[in-house]
Design goal:
Blueprint: E1 6-12, H1 16-27, E2 32-35, E3 51-52, H2 64-80, E4 85-93, H3 101-113, E5 124-127, E6 141-150, H4 152-165, E7 169-171, E8 175-182, E9 185-192, E10 195-206, H5 212-219, E11 228-239, E12 247-251, E13 257-263, E14 267-271, E15 275-276, H6 288-301, E16 313-322, E17 336-343, E18 346-353, H7 359-370, H8 396-406, H9 412-422, H10 426-430, H11 449-458, H12 464-471, H13 480-502
Parallel strand pairs: 1-2, 1-10, 2-7, 4-12, 10-18
Antiparallel strand pairs: 3-6, 4-6, 5-6, 8-9, 9-10, 11-14, 11-15, 11-16, 12-13, 13-14, 17-18
Helix pairs in contact: 1-4, 1-7, 8-9
């Protein structure tokens, strides 16, 4: 890495906002370096409810601008990444003592018409047949509407790949330890396993998520424009509790909602919670009270009752929300705030808040704010640009059939996982492999050496957790012995790659 080179932009943070800004900037012709202290999407961005949604409940808090933007972005993102994002129907069982039917119908009318809607179906009323209903007898009707499901971590990786292919340098496991501005230029000190080094940049973007104010105050020695409040959101995963591909949005007595979402064909994903978090964002974990809360809401609606013994896995993250001094975490704004300041005439853009659905618009807004500092900045481009994997007129059904013919000895479930992970780039992952035997060692559950090597070489995967939790979601199936074998292989692979670089 040329330490004398001056980048146009250094981005701190490899979550969805950081990679979104890096991808947008690189596509406009800027030279960009992004650093992330851990793996891509290793914190907030992989701890979401896996949804691209307008935010139906935000209407109650009168966040019309955010909802309108998010509703429009659903269709934009579906077109950009059809391998990662799919339409999903949601059913809200009606509980009259919580919200009257007229209020829900009014909200859904706005939901149908606030944003541009071309692909997604509108809302309607549904009646539950008491003989076949999943719900308790007193729940007799509900409301149905459309939103989208997404593989959140892979959406982050796809944006990082797009940034990289437009010339950005993506440095994972690389921590920014300090930055100083002098004569219009930032000198940024970075640290990774190879040691400490400095890079210089015209603009510094702070997309550190939960660490956004800590970075400003501790690393930059500056005053933060806003404080943030960390809100913990936790999910539980249980074996699939109902057939079909629809999700449910469940109302609770505290006016919050919880989703029950079909997940990876075999599971039901249940979440999320909303509670203040005061600890280390690196160490967030589900609490006993959150488990009780989610089980209670499910059991209040469904005939099938869940217990702790049904829980296969849990995950938790913290949402860094811009502190609007609300007493209710659920009522705090999910909108984003971009703050542009300068130190020694060197621009610093800090990102507060935001949500997965609006990351592209956030990145575009960031570039609009930074435009005065770059005289030759190219125009907006991301709205129509396909993400890696969506190229070549991507059609999941056609690609599955094509791969089944090409690799007839590969199970359909594996082909479908490949297609919904890599899209049209599955051919790059497969390389010259034409038979299962050519895929190399199998580490379990149809994870082969060919795929592992590809993830290490092309998607910044380093550890078994990177591969199993964020790149493939196979962590729900792997046992400790299988993880140990994968770790052993990765250790040998990294040693071999290091020797090749040294030679």
């Amino acid at each position: 890495m040329d330490q004398h080179h001056i980048y146009d932009m250094v981005v701190i943070g490899g979550g969805i906002n950081g990679v979104g800004i890096a991808a947008d900037a690189a596509g406009r012709g800027l030279s960009v370096l992004l650093c992330e202290k851990d793996d891509l999407a290793s914190h907030t961005s992989s701890a979401s409810s896996k949804l691209i949604h307008g935010g139906l409940r935000y209407l109650e808090h009168k966040e019309f601008r955010l909802v309108r933007e998010a509703l429009a972005e659903r269709e934009v993102l579906m077109a950009k990444a059809p391998h990662l994002i799919r339409a999903m129907r949601f059913i809200m069982p009606h509980r009259p003592h919580l919200r009257p039917a007229w209020l829900i119908r009014t909200g859904l009318f706005f939901y149908d018409h606030l944003g541009k809607r071309e692909k997604l179906a509108g809302s309607n009323l549904v009646d539950f047949d008491p003989k076949t209903s999943l719900f308790k007898p007193e729940i007799v009707k509900g409301f149905e509407y459309s939103d989208c499901a997404v593989d959140d971590a892979r959406l982050v990786v796809a944006n990082a790949i797009q940034a990289h292919e437009n010339g950005a340098s993506i440095q994972t496991r690389t921590r920014c330890i300090t930055a100083q501005a002098e004569q219009n230029v930032w000198t940024v000190q970075l640290q990774n396993t190879q040691g400490t080094f400095a890079v210089r940049a015209k603009v510094l973007v702070n997309a550190a998520g939960p660490w956004v104010t800590e970075f400003i105050q501790q690393d930059l020695k500056m005053q933060a424009a806003y404080s943030i409040r960390l809100i913990q959101g936790s999910h539980i995963i249980v074996p699939k509790i109902y057939a079909g591909d629809k999700a449910f949005i469940l109302q609770n007595d505290d006016q919050r909602i919880v989703f029950a979402i079909p997940y990876l064909d075999e599971y039901t994903l249940i979440g999320t919670t909303d509670q203040r978090y005061l600890g280390n964002p690196d160490q967030v974990d589900i609490t006993e009270s959150e488990i009780d809360y989610l089980l209670q809401i499910m059991n209040a609606h469904f005939q099938q009752q869940l217990t702790r013994q049904d829980i296969i896995s849990t995950y938790s993250g913290v949402r860094p929300l811009c502190d609007d001094e609300s007493d209710n975490p659920s009522a705090m704004t999910r909108d984003y705030t971009l703050v542009l300041t300068q130190q020694q005439h060197a621009p610093l853009l800090s990102v507060y808040g935001g949500k997965l659905t609006t990351y592209r618009k956030l990145a575009e807004s960031a570039m609009h704010q930074l435009k005065p500092f770059f005289s030759k900045l190219k125009p907006d481009w991301t709205a129509k640009a396909l993400l890696p994997g969506a190229e070549n007129f991507f059609n999941a059904e056609h690609l599955v059939k094509e791969l089944e013919q090409y690799l007839p000895d590969v199970p359909k479930s594996l082909v479908e996982r490949w297609v919904h992970s890599y899209g049209s780039r599955v051919w790059r992952m497969l390389g010259s492999c034409e038979h299962v035997s050519a895929l190399g060692q199998c580490f379990g559950h149809d994870l082969y050496q060919q795929e592992v090597d590809y993830l290490v070489a092309n998607e910044w995967a380093v550890s078994s957790e990177d591969i199993l939790k964020r790149r493939s979601k196979l962590y729900l199936k792997f046992d400790q012995d299988q993880i140990a074998r994968l770790d052993e292989y990765l250790l040998a692979l990294h040693k071999r790659r290091a020797q090749e670089i040294a030679a």
